[in-house]
Design a protein that fits this description.
Blueprint: H1 4-13, H2 23-34, E1 43-50, H3 53-59, H4 61-77, E2 84-89, E3 92-97, H5 103-115, E4 118-120, E5 123-125, E6 128-135, H6 142-158, E7 163-166, H7 170-188, E8 194-203, E9 208-220, E10 223-225, H8 227-237, H9 240-260, E11 266-270, H10 273-276, H11 281-292, E12 299-303, H12 315-324, E13 328-334, H13 340-343, E14 351-354, H14 356-359, H15 370-381, E15 385-388, H16 394-403, E16 407-408, H17 422-436
Parallel strand pairs: 6-7, 9-11, 11-12, 12-13, 13-14, 14-15, 15-16
Antiparallel strand pairs: 1-3, 1-6, 2-3, 4-5, 8-9, 8-16, 9-10
Length: 441
C-alpha cells in the first residue's frame, strides 16, 4: 500500500483521467534529458486531436473522456519504457523520446495508431490529429523546444490537419505573418479598413439583377489582403463577429436606395458558424435591418452545411427565428458538404448555391452531367430555388438555364465591384443575361 507521501506525489505528477504524466512531470523529465551530454536521441512530439469538440458536443463529455483514456493507452504502445507520454490538458498530449534515432518513424506510428477506429457509445469514430516534431538542439532550453513543437503542430493544422510536420525555421516566419495578420485585423474595423464589394446575381425569369452578394474586403495601408487569407484568421480569432456586423451594416447603408426600388431585390451576406454561435446574433441582424428600414425578405444569409453539424449549438434556433422574419437562408457550396443530398430536406434553407466545381466541368454545354442534373431535380422537388455560382462562359450559362437554375452568378456577368461601380455592373449583367435568353415577340 502506498503511503500518504506517495499518494500526494502521484496526484501532483499524474493526470487524473488518463494516468499519464502531467505537465509538471513532463517538464521535469524534459529538463533532466536536456541536462545530459548526449542530445542526439532526444525528441519532442506534441499533438492534439482535430475537431475533438465535436465528440463532446455530439456524444457527450463521458464519451470524450473515454476517447482520451484510449488515446493515452495507444500512445503508450507507440514508445519505449524510457520515454514519457503526458497529457497537457484537454485533448493535447506530448511525447518525450530519449533513446530513438527514428522519431519520424514514431510519429508515423502514432498517426497510424490514433487514426484507427474508436467505438464510443455505439458510434465508430476515426479521429484525426495534428502533430509537431522537434529534435533537441544544444542551444535550446525546455520552453524553447516546446514552443517550436507547438509551432510545428499548428503548421500541421494549417496544412490540412491529420498529419505530422517536423519543425523548420520557416515556420517561425509563417507564425510572425499570421500574428501580424491577426494583430492588424483587431483594428481593421476601427480604422475603416474593412470595405464591401458587390457581385450581381442575375435572375433567369426576369433577366434582371434582383440580388447582389456583399463580399468583405480588407484594404490595409500596404495593400489589399485576399479574403482567403484574412477570413480564416478572423474565424480563428473570433474577429469575424465584428467584421460580419460591419459588412452587414455597410451593405444596408449602401444598398438602401437600390433595395427600396423593388421589393424583390435582395442582398446576400456570408455568415460563419462562429457568428451563428453568438446567442445575440439574430437580434443584432434584426436590429441592423430595422435601423436601415430594410425588410427581412430583402436579406439572404449564406451558410455552409458545416454550420449544422453541431446539434447542441443555438445555430438552428437562430436561423429559424430569422426565417420567421422573412429572411432567407442560402446553402453555399451545395454538393460539396458532408451529406448534402441525404440531409437536404431536414436543413432550414431556402436557396441552394451549386458550387463552382460542378459548373467548371461544363465546357461545350453538350455534356451529360447526371450528378448536376440530379442535384437540380432534387432541389426543385423540395421547393428550393437554385443559384449557380462560378459561371464564366455562355456555354455554362445556357446549360445551367436549361437545367432550370433560377439565378446565375459569376465573372461572365460581373466581377465583384466597389459600391460606386455597382450601378454600371448591374446594367451590364442584365444585358448579358438578356443576350443569353431566346428572343420573345
Amino acid at each position: 500500500m502506498p503511503g500518504k507521501a506517495e499518494e500526494l506525489k502521484l496526484l501532483a505528477f499524474r493526470d487524473p483521467l488518463t494516468g499519464l504524466a502531467n505537465r509538471a512531470l513532463f517538464r521535469e523529465h524534459l529538463e533532466q534529458a536536456l541536462a545530459s551530454r548526449d542530445l542526439s536521441g532526444i525528441h519532442v512530439l506534441l499533438l492534439d486531436l482535430d475537431d475533438f469538440k465535436e465528440v463532446n458536443d455530439v456524444l457527450g463529455h463521458q464519451a470524450g473522456d473515454e476517447m482520451l483514456i484510449e488515446i493515452g493507452r495507444r500512445l503508450r504502445r507507440c514508445v519505449g519504457e524510457e520515454d514519457t507520454v503526458a497529457r497537457l490538458g484537454g485533448d493535447e498530449f506530448v511525447i518525450l523520446l530519449t533513446g530513438t534515432f527514428d522519431p519520424d518513424g514514431v510519429a508515423r506510428l502514432v498517426m497510424s495508431e490514433l487514426n484507427g477506429p474508436f467505438t464510443l457509445h455505439g458510434h465508430e469514430l476515426r479521429p484525426g490529429l495534428s502533430l509537431g516534431l522537434i529534435s533537441a538542439d544544444t542551444e535550446l532550453h525546455a520552453p524553447d523546444l516546446m514552443r517550436r513543437a507547438d509551432i510545428a503542430m499548428y503548421a500541421a493544422k494549417a496544412a490540412g490537419k491529420n498529419r505530422f510536420l517536423r519543425f523548420h525555421p520557416d515556420m517561425m516566419t509563417a507564425l510572425l505573418v499570421r500574428n501580424d495578420l491577426e494583430t492588424g485585423l483587431r483594428t481593421a474595423v476601427e480604422y475603416g479598413e474593412i470595405t464591401v464589394h458587390y457581385q450581381p446575381v442575375v435572375d433567369a425569369k426576369s433577366a434582371t439583377v434582383t440580388q447582389v452578394e456583399a463580399l468583405a474586403r480588407w484594404e490595409r495601408p500596404d495593400g489589399l489582403v485576399p479574403p482567403s487569407e484574412f477570413i480564416p484568421a478572423a474565424e480563428r480569432s473570433g474577429l469575424i463577429n465584428a467584421i460580419g456586423q460591419e459588412v452587414l451594416s455597410q451593405a444596408c447603408a449602401q444598398l438602401r436606395s437600390w433595395l427600396a426600388g423593388d421589393s424583390k431585390r435582395a442582398v446576400a451576406v456570408n455568415v460563419s458558424a462562429v457568428q451563428l454561435r453568438e446567442k445575440g446574433y439574430a437580434d443584432a441582424v434584426l436590429g441592423t435591418l430595422a435601423a436601415a428600414g430594410i425588410d427581412g425578405a430583402q436579406l439572404i444569409l449564406k451558410v455552409t452545411e458545416s454550420v449544422f453539424l453541431d446539434p447542441a449549438s443555438p445555430i438552428t434556433g437562430q436561423l429559424a427565428m430569422l426565417r420567421r422574419q422573412g429572411i432567407r437562408v442560402a446553402l453555399d457550396d451545395f454538393g460539396t458538404g458532408y451529406s448534402s443530398l441525404g440531409r437536404l430536406q431536414d436543413l432550414p434553407v431556402d436557396i441552394l448555391k451549386i458550387d463552382r466545381t460542378f459548373v467548371s466541368v461544363i465546357h461545350t454545354g453538350e455534356e451529360d452531367l447526371p450528378i448536376l442534373t440530379s442535384m437540380s431535380a432534387m432541389a426543385h422537388h423540395l421547393g428550393h430555388r437554385i443559384t449557380a455560382e462560378g459561371v464564366e462562359s455562355p456555354e455554362q450559362a445556357r446549360h445551367l438555364l436549361h437545367l432550370g437554375c433560377d439565378a446565375l452568378q459569376g465573372y461572365l456577368f460581373s466581377r465583384p465591384v466597389p459600391p460606386q461601380e455597382l450601378s454600371g455592373a448591374v446594367q451590364r449583367a442584365s444585358e448579358r443575361i438578356k443576350a443569353l435568353l431566346p428572343a420573345t415577340d
